[in-house]
Amino acid sequence: xxxxxxENFIANGSAIRAMFEEGKKMxxxxxxxxxxxxxLGNPNLPxxxxxxxxxxxxLKEEDPVxxxxxxxxxxxxxxxxxxxxxLNDRFDTNFSQKNIVMTxxxxxxxxxxxxxxxxxxxxxxxxxxxxxxxxxxxxxxxADIAIVPASIPTFQPDFESFEEMLNPKTRIVIINTPNNxxxxxxxxxxxxxxxxxxxxxxxxxxxxxxxxxDEPYRELVYGDIDVxxxxxxxxxxxxxxxxxxxxxxxxxxxxxLAIPETVADFEKVSAGANMATRILGFVxxxxxxxxxxxxxxxxxxxxxxxxxxxxxxxxxxxxxxYECTYPDGAFYLWVKTPxxxxxxxxxxxxxxxxxxxGTFFGCPGYTRIAYCISPKTIETAFPKFEALMNEIKG
Length: 394
Ligand code: PLP
Description:
By secondary structure, the chain is α/β, with parallel strands linked by helices. The protein has helices at 4-12, 15-30, 49-61, 64-68, 77-91, 105-117, 133-140, 159-165, 188-205, 266-279, 287-294, 303-320, 341-350, 375-393; strands at 36-37, 100-103, 123-127, 144-148, 170-175, 210-215, 237-242, 255-258, 323-325, 332-336, 353-354, 356-357, 366-370. It folds into two domains: 4-48 and 301-393, Aspartate Aminotransferase, domain 1 (Alpha-Beta Complex); 49-294, Aspartate Aminotransferase, domain 2 (3-Layer(aba) Sandwich). The mean pLDDT is 96. It binds pyridoxal-5'-phosphate.
Protein backbone atom coordinates (compact mmCIF):
# COMPACT_ATOMS: atom_id res chain seq x y z
CA UNK A 1 0.00 0.00 0.00
CA UNK A 2 1.31 3.47 -0.81
CA UNK A 3 0.83 6.70 1.13
CA UNK A 4 -2.46 8.60 0.89
CA UNK A 5 -0.59 11.65 -0.35
CA UNK A 6 0.99 9.66 -3.17
CA GLU A 7 -2.38 8.06 -4.01
CA ASN A 8 -3.72 11.58 -4.55
CA PHE A 9 -0.71 12.70 -6.58
CA ILE A 10 -1.16 9.73 -8.88
CA ALA A 11 -4.93 10.16 -9.13
CA ASN A 12 -4.61 13.84 -10.06
CA GLY A 13 -1.55 13.23 -12.22
CA SER A 14 -0.15 15.98 -14.36
CA ALA A 15 -2.32 17.05 -17.28
CA ILE A 16 0.83 17.98 -19.21
CA ARG A 17 2.61 14.67 -18.74
CA ALA A 18 -0.62 12.78 -19.56
CA MET A 19 -0.86 14.66 -22.86
CA PHE A 20 2.78 13.94 -23.63
CA GLU A 21 2.13 10.20 -23.23
CA GLU A 22 -1.04 10.51 -25.31
CA GLY A 23 1.01 12.16 -28.08
CA LYS A 24 3.32 9.19 -28.26
CA LYS A 25 0.34 6.80 -28.56
CA MET A 26 -1.29 8.94 -31.26
CA UNK A 27 1.96 9.09 -33.25
CA UNK A 28 1.99 5.30 -33.38
CA UNK A 29 -1.59 5.25 -34.76
CA UNK A 30 -1.73 8.31 -37.09
CA UNK A 31 1.96 8.82 -37.91
CA UNK A 32 4.12 11.34 -36.05
CA UNK A 33 3.82 13.87 -38.90
CA UNK A 34 0.04 14.12 -38.37
CA UNK A 35 0.13 14.66 -34.63
CA UNK A 36 0.44 18.23 -33.42
CA UNK A 37 1.73 17.90 -29.90
CA UNK A 38 1.72 21.32 -28.24
CA UNK A 39 1.57 19.89 -24.73
CA LEU A 40 5.02 19.93 -23.17
CA GLY A 41 7.52 22.75 -22.72
CA ASN A 42 10.32 20.49 -23.88
CA PRO A 43 12.74 22.55 -26.01
CA ASN A 44 13.11 21.07 -29.48
CA LEU A 45 16.24 23.12 -30.18
CA PRO A 46 19.58 21.45 -29.55
CA UNK A 47 21.79 23.06 -26.88
CA UNK A 48 24.24 25.61 -28.32
CA UNK A 49 27.24 23.89 -29.98
CA UNK A 50 29.51 25.21 -27.24
CA UNK A 51 27.83 22.92 -24.67
CA UNK A 52 29.13 19.76 -26.33
CA UNK A 53 32.61 21.24 -26.68
CA UNK A 54 32.59 22.39 -23.08
CA UNK A 55 31.48 19.00 -21.73
CA UNK A 56 34.43 17.39 -23.51
CA UNK A 57 36.76 20.13 -22.30
CA UNK A 58 35.57 19.68 -18.70
CA LEU A 59 36.02 15.91 -18.91
CA LYS A 60 39.54 16.37 -20.25
CA GLU A 61 40.68 19.18 -17.98
CA GLU A 62 39.10 18.60 -14.57
CA ASP A 63 40.58 16.30 -11.96
CA PRO A 64 38.39 13.17 -12.36
CA VAL A 65 38.32 12.48 -8.64
CA UNK A 66 36.98 15.92 -7.92
CA UNK A 67 34.67 15.94 -10.95
CA UNK A 68 32.94 12.65 -10.17
CA UNK A 69 33.03 12.77 -6.37
CA UNK A 70 30.86 14.21 -3.60
CA UNK A 71 31.11 17.92 -2.93
CA UNK A 72 29.58 20.64 -0.79
CA UNK A 73 25.79 20.05 -1.04
CA UNK A 74 25.35 23.61 -2.34
CA UNK A 75 27.71 22.91 -5.25
CA UNK A 76 31.29 23.66 -6.30
CA UNK A 77 32.55 26.95 -4.85
CA UNK A 78 34.22 27.99 -8.14
CA UNK A 79 31.01 27.37 -10.10
CA UNK A 80 28.92 29.34 -7.61
CA UNK A 81 31.48 32.16 -7.67
CA UNK A 82 31.29 32.36 -11.48
CA UNK A 83 27.50 32.45 -11.41
CA UNK A 84 27.55 35.15 -8.72
CA UNK A 85 29.97 37.25 -10.78
CA UNK A 86 27.90 36.83 -13.93
CA LEU A 87 24.76 37.99 -12.08
CA ASN A 88 26.65 40.96 -10.61
CA ASP A 89 27.87 41.96 -14.08
CA ARG A 90 24.45 41.65 -15.63
CA PHE A 91 22.18 42.97 -12.91
CA ASP A 92 24.41 45.06 -10.69
CA THR A 93 23.83 42.76 -7.72
CA ASN A 94 26.32 42.03 -4.99
CA PHE A 95 26.48 38.23 -4.84
CA SER A 96 29.29 35.84 -4.00
CA GLN A 97 29.39 32.06 -3.90
CA LYS A 98 27.66 32.05 -0.52
CA ASN A 99 24.50 33.40 -2.16
CA ILE A 100 24.27 30.60 -4.72
CA VAL A 101 23.00 27.03 -4.21
CA MET A 102 23.24 24.74 -7.23
CA THR A 103 20.04 22.74 -7.83
CA UNK A 104 18.71 19.90 -9.92
CA UNK A 105 16.80 22.32 -12.19
CA UNK A 106 14.09 24.76 -11.13
CA UNK A 107 11.77 21.98 -9.97
CA UNK A 108 14.32 20.94 -7.35
CA UNK A 109 15.11 24.58 -6.56
CA UNK A 110 11.46 25.20 -5.74
CA UNK A 111 11.22 22.05 -3.63
CA UNK A 112 14.42 22.92 -1.77
CA UNK A 113 13.22 26.39 -0.90
CA UNK A 114 9.72 25.19 0.03
CA UNK A 115 11.23 22.55 2.32
CA UNK A 116 13.47 25.21 3.85
CA UNK A 117 10.78 27.78 4.56
CA UNK A 118 7.45 26.06 5.08
CA UNK A 119 5.75 24.68 8.17
CA UNK A 120 2.59 22.59 7.77
CA UNK A 121 -0.40 24.90 7.35
CA UNK A 122 1.65 27.79 5.92
CA UNK A 123 0.32 29.36 2.77
CA UNK A 124 1.85 29.80 -0.67
CA UNK A 125 0.27 32.46 -2.83
CA UNK A 126 0.31 32.27 -6.61
CA UNK A 127 -1.19 34.34 -9.39
CA UNK A 128 -3.48 32.59 -11.88
CA UNK A 129 -2.63 31.30 -14.35
CA UNK A 130 0.35 29.54 -12.77
CA UNK A 131 2.61 26.49 -13.36
CA UNK A 132 0.41 23.68 -12.00
CA UNK A 133 3.27 21.79 -10.34
CA UNK A 134 3.49 24.45 -7.61
CA UNK A 135 0.39 22.84 -6.13
CA UNK A 136 2.04 19.42 -5.87
CA UNK A 137 5.18 20.90 -4.34
CA UNK A 138 3.01 22.74 -1.77
CA UNK A 139 1.03 19.60 -0.88
CA UNK A 140 4.28 17.74 -0.47
CA UNK A 141 5.21 20.23 2.29
CA UNK A 142 1.69 20.14 3.83
CA ALA A 143 1.27 23.79 2.87
CA ASP A 144 -1.87 25.38 1.44
CA ILE A 145 -2.00 27.13 -1.89
CA ALA A 146 -3.95 30.37 -2.35
CA ILE A 147 -4.68 31.45 -5.90
CA VAL A 148 -5.05 35.14 -6.74
CA PRO A 149 -7.60 35.26 -9.59
CA ALA A 150 -6.36 36.16 -13.06
CA SER A 151 -6.51 39.72 -14.20
CA ILE A 152 -7.98 39.40 -17.68
CA PRO A 153 -6.91 40.31 -20.34
CA THR A 154 -3.50 41.65 -19.22
CA PHE A 155 -2.56 38.73 -16.93
CA GLN A 156 -0.55 41.15 -14.82
CA PRO A 157 -1.18 40.70 -11.04
CA ASP A 158 -4.56 41.69 -9.64
CA PHE A 159 -3.22 43.87 -6.82
CA GLU A 160 -6.54 44.48 -5.13
CA SER A 161 -7.27 40.77 -4.64
CA PHE A 162 -3.61 40.14 -3.78
CA GLU A 163 -3.61 42.68 -0.99
CA GLU A 164 -6.91 41.39 0.35
CA MET A 165 -5.79 37.77 0.27
CA LEU A 166 -2.41 38.18 1.99
CA ASN A 167 -2.69 37.04 5.61
CA PRO A 168 -0.50 36.11 8.57
CA LYS A 169 -0.15 32.55 7.23
CA THR A 170 1.28 33.70 3.87
CA ARG A 171 4.88 32.56 3.93
CA ILE A 172 5.69 32.47 0.21
CA VAL A 173 4.48 34.38 -2.84
CA ILE A 174 5.57 33.02 -6.22
CA ILE A 175 5.98 35.02 -9.39
CA ASN A 176 7.08 33.63 -12.74
CA THR A 177 8.07 36.18 -15.32
CA PRO A 178 8.34 35.61 -18.29
CA ASN A 179 5.33 33.52 -17.47
CA ASN A 180 4.34 29.97 -18.18
CA UNK A 181 1.60 29.79 -19.56
CA UNK A 182 0.87 33.36 -20.73
CA UNK A 183 4.29 34.61 -21.94
CA UNK A 184 3.58 37.83 -20.03
CA UNK A 185 6.49 39.76 -18.47
CA UNK A 186 6.00 41.89 -15.35
CA UNK A 187 7.20 45.46 -15.70
CA UNK A 188 9.41 47.24 -13.16
CA UNK A 189 6.38 49.25 -12.09
CA UNK A 190 4.49 46.02 -11.38
CA UNK A 191 7.35 44.62 -9.33
CA UNK A 192 7.64 47.82 -7.31
CA UNK A 193 3.93 47.79 -6.57
CA UNK A 194 4.15 44.13 -5.54
CA UNK A 195 7.08 44.95 -3.24
CA UNK A 196 5.22 47.88 -1.71
CA UNK A 197 2.24 45.67 -0.82
CA UNK A 198 4.46 42.92 0.55
CA UNK A 199 6.47 45.33 2.70
CA UNK A 200 3.27 46.83 4.06
CA UNK A 201 1.79 43.43 4.89
CA UNK A 202 5.00 42.13 6.49
CA UNK A 203 4.86 45.08 8.86
CA UNK A 204 1.16 44.70 9.52
CA UNK A 205 1.43 40.97 10.34
CA UNK A 206 4.93 41.12 11.79
CA UNK A 207 5.94 38.16 9.57
CA UNK A 208 8.45 37.44 6.82
CA UNK A 209 6.89 36.94 3.40
CA UNK A 210 9.38 35.47 0.93
CA UNK A 211 8.94 36.30 -2.74
CA UNK A 212 10.09 33.39 -4.89
CA UNK A 213 10.93 34.46 -8.41
CA ASP A 214 10.76 31.36 -10.60
CA GLU A 215 12.85 32.24 -13.66
CA PRO A 216 13.41 29.38 -16.11
CA TYR A 217 12.39 31.71 -18.97
CA ARG A 218 14.49 34.78 -18.05
CA GLU A 219 16.59 34.52 -21.24
CA LEU A 220 13.64 33.80 -23.55
CA VAL A 221 12.51 37.33 -24.23
CA TYR A 222 11.50 38.75 -27.63
CA GLY A 223 12.67 42.22 -28.53
CA ASP A 224 14.01 44.85 -26.26
CA ILE A 225 11.98 44.14 -23.15
CA ASP A 226 13.53 44.52 -19.73
CA VAL A 227 12.95 41.73 -17.17
CA UNK A 228 13.63 43.38 -13.81
CA UNK A 229 15.97 41.51 -11.44
CA UNK A 230 13.68 41.06 -8.48
CA UNK A 231 16.18 40.95 -5.59
CA UNK A 232 16.85 44.64 -6.19
CA UNK A 233 13.20 45.53 -5.63
CA UNK A 234 12.24 43.44 -2.61
CA UNK A 235 14.65 42.35 0.13
CA UNK A 236 12.98 39.02 0.83
CA UNK A 237 13.37 37.69 -2.72
CA UNK A 238 14.85 34.30 -3.61
CA UNK A 239 15.50 33.56 -7.29
CA UNK A 240 14.97 30.09 -8.71
CA UNK A 241 16.88 29.74 -11.98
CA UNK A 242 17.19 26.91 -14.50
CA UNK A 243 19.27 26.16 -17.59
CA UNK A 244 16.55 23.79 -18.91
CA UNK A 245 15.17 26.29 -21.42
CA UNK A 246 17.92 28.90 -21.86
CA UNK A 247 20.45 26.22 -22.90
CA UNK A 248 17.99 23.42 -23.86
CA UNK A 249 19.34 21.24 -21.06
CA UNK A 250 16.01 20.12 -19.57
CA UNK A 251 17.07 16.47 -19.22
CA UNK A 252 20.40 17.35 -17.58
CA UNK A 253 18.67 18.87 -14.53
CA UNK A 254 20.72 21.91 -13.67
CA UNK A 255 19.85 25.26 -12.11
CA UNK A 256 20.50 27.31 -8.98
CA LEU A 257 18.99 29.38 -6.20
CA ALA A 258 20.18 32.94 -5.64
CA ILE A 259 19.63 33.89 -2.00
CA PRO A 260 20.68 37.47 -1.26
CA GLU A 261 21.94 38.50 2.16
CA THR A 262 18.99 40.87 2.43
CA VAL A 263 16.52 38.00 3.02
CA ALA A 264 15.27 37.58 6.56
CA ASP A 265 17.37 35.02 8.46
CA PHE A 266 19.83 34.75 5.57
CA GLU A 267 22.30 32.48 7.35
CA LYS A 268 19.57 30.05 8.37
CA VAL A 269 17.83 30.10 4.99
CA SER A 270 21.12 29.42 3.28
CA ALA A 271 22.04 26.60 5.69
CA GLY A 272 18.48 25.26 5.33
CA ALA A 273 18.72 25.15 1.53
CA ASN A 274 22.01 23.28 1.80
CA MET A 275 20.39 20.78 4.18
CA ALA A 276 17.17 20.48 2.11
CA THR A 277 19.24 19.61 -0.97
CA ARG A 278 20.68 16.75 1.04
CA ILE A 279 17.58 15.42 2.72
CA LEU A 280 15.42 15.64 -0.39
CA GLY A 281 17.92 13.18 -1.76
CA PHE A 282 19.44 15.25 -4.57
CA VAL A 283 22.55 15.62 -2.35
CA UNK A 284 24.05 17.96 -4.95
CA UNK A 285 23.36 19.11 -8.50
CA UNK A 286 25.02 17.05 -11.30
CA UNK A 287 28.75 17.77 -11.17
CA UNK A 288 29.56 17.64 -14.90
CA UNK A 289 26.71 20.01 -15.66
CA UNK A 290 27.74 22.42 -12.91
CA UNK A 291 31.21 22.76 -14.41
CA UNK A 292 29.77 22.99 -17.93
CA UNK A 293 27.19 25.74 -17.37
CA UNK A 294 29.73 27.77 -15.39
CA UNK A 295 31.75 28.06 -18.61
CA UNK A 296 28.69 28.86 -20.76
CA UNK A 297 26.96 31.58 -18.78
CA UNK A 298 26.88 33.94 -21.76
CA UNK A 299 25.44 31.38 -24.18
CA UNK A 300 21.83 30.84 -25.03
CA UNK A 301 19.74 29.00 -27.60
CA UNK A 302 18.69 30.58 -30.88
CA UNK A 303 15.75 32.67 -29.74
CA UNK A 304 14.90 33.62 -33.36
CA UNK A 305 13.67 30.09 -33.88
CA UNK A 306 11.07 30.48 -31.13
CA UNK A 307 10.27 33.98 -32.26
CA UNK A 308 9.32 32.76 -35.75
CA UNK A 309 7.05 30.11 -34.20
CA UNK A 310 5.55 32.73 -31.93
CA UNK A 311 4.71 35.08 -34.80
CA UNK A 312 3.39 32.30 -37.04
CA UNK A 313 1.10 30.85 -34.37
CA UNK A 314 -0.15 34.14 -32.99
CA UNK A 315 -1.00 35.63 -36.39
CA UNK A 316 -2.24 32.35 -37.88
CA UNK A 317 -4.61 31.57 -35.01
CA UNK A 318 -5.82 35.15 -34.68
CA UNK A 319 -6.73 35.10 -38.38
CA UNK A 320 -8.79 31.94 -37.87
CA UNK A 321 -10.71 33.71 -35.08
CA TYR A 322 -8.95 32.62 -31.88
CA GLU A 323 -8.30 35.22 -29.19
CA CYS A 324 -4.65 35.01 -28.17
CA THR A 325 -2.46 36.82 -25.63
CA TYR A 326 0.59 38.19 -27.44
CA PRO A 327 3.55 36.63 -25.62
CA ASP A 328 6.62 38.77 -24.84
CA GLY A 329 8.63 35.86 -23.51
CA ALA A 330 8.85 32.07 -22.83
CA PHE A 331 7.54 29.76 -25.57
CA TYR A 332 3.83 29.44 -24.88
CA LEU A 333 0.75 30.93 -26.50
CA TRP A 334 -2.23 31.48 -24.22
CA VAL A 335 -5.50 31.18 -26.09
CA LYS A 336 -9.09 31.83 -25.02
CA THR A 337 -11.22 28.77 -25.68
CA PRO A 338 -14.53 29.44 -27.44
CA UNK A 339 -16.10 26.72 -25.25
CA UNK A 340 -15.21 25.16 -21.88
CA UNK A 341 -11.44 24.63 -21.89
CA UNK A 342 -11.51 20.94 -21.01
CA UNK A 343 -14.10 20.23 -23.69
CA UNK A 344 -12.07 22.25 -26.19
CA UNK A 345 -8.93 20.26 -25.43
CA UNK A 346 -10.94 17.03 -25.73
CA UNK A 347 -12.34 18.06 -29.11
CA UNK A 348 -8.89 19.15 -30.31
CA UNK A 349 -7.65 15.62 -29.64
CA UNK A 350 -9.98 14.34 -32.35
CA UNK A 351 -7.92 16.44 -34.76
CA UNK A 352 -4.69 15.05 -33.25
CA UNK A 353 -3.94 18.39 -31.61
CA UNK A 354 -2.64 18.07 -28.07
CA UNK A 355 -3.06 21.02 -25.73
CA UNK A 356 -3.20 21.65 -21.99
CA UNK A 357 -6.44 23.11 -20.56
CA GLY A 358 -6.28 26.39 -18.65
CA THR A 359 -7.84 24.64 -15.65
CA PHE A 360 -4.46 22.99 -15.04
CA PHE A 361 -3.01 26.48 -14.61
CA GLY A 362 -5.83 27.60 -12.30
CA CYS A 363 -7.49 29.58 -15.09
CA PRO A 364 -10.40 27.88 -16.89
CA GLY A 365 -11.59 29.24 -20.25
CA TYR A 366 -8.12 29.16 -21.80
CA THR A 367 -5.64 26.70 -23.26
CA ARG A 368 -1.86 26.68 -23.52
CA ILE A 369 0.00 25.98 -26.75
CA ALA A 370 3.71 25.20 -26.31
CA TYR A 371 5.54 26.41 -29.43
CA CYS A 372 8.96 24.93 -28.68
CA ILE A 373 8.25 22.58 -31.58
CA SER A 374 9.03 22.33 -35.29
CA PRO A 375 7.54 25.00 -37.62
CA LYS A 376 6.20 22.13 -39.72
CA THR A 377 3.93 21.07 -36.83
CA ILE A 378 2.52 24.59 -36.69
CA GLU A 379 1.78 24.52 -40.44
CA THR A 380 0.13 21.10 -40.10
CA ALA A 381 -1.98 22.39 -37.21
CA PHE A 382 -3.58 25.44 -38.88
CA PRO A 383 -6.19 23.57 -41.00
CA LYS A 384 -6.97 21.42 -37.96
CA PHE A 385 -7.48 24.48 -35.74
CA GLU A 386 -9.68 26.00 -38.45
CA ALA A 387 -11.80 22.86 -38.76
CA LEU A 388 -12.15 22.77 -34.99
CA MET A 389 -13.32 26.39 -34.89
CA ASN A 390 -15.84 25.69 -37.68
CA GLU A 391 -17.11 22.63 -35.85
CA ILE A 392 -17.61 24.69 -32.66
CA LYS A 393 -19.34 27.51 -34.52
CA GLY A 394 -21.59 24.87 -36.09
N1 PLP B 1 8.89 26.57 -13.32
C1 PLP B 1 8.23 26.78 -14.45
C2 PLP B 1 7.38 28.00 -14.56
C3 PLP B 1 8.34 25.89 -15.52
O1 PLP B 1 7.67 26.14 -16.64
C4 PLP B 1 9.16 24.76 -15.38
C5 PLP B 1 9.28 23.77 -16.45
O2 PLP B 1 8.62 23.79 -17.45
C6 PLP B 1 9.84 24.57 -14.16
C7 PLP B 1 9.69 25.49 -13.16
C8 PLP B 1 10.75 23.40 -13.96
O3 PLP B 1 11.89 23.54 -14.74
P1 PLP B 1 13.16 22.59 -14.60
O4 PLP B 1 13.23 21.77 -15.84
O5 PLP B 1 14.32 23.49 -14.49
O6 PLP B 1 12.97 21.78 -13.38
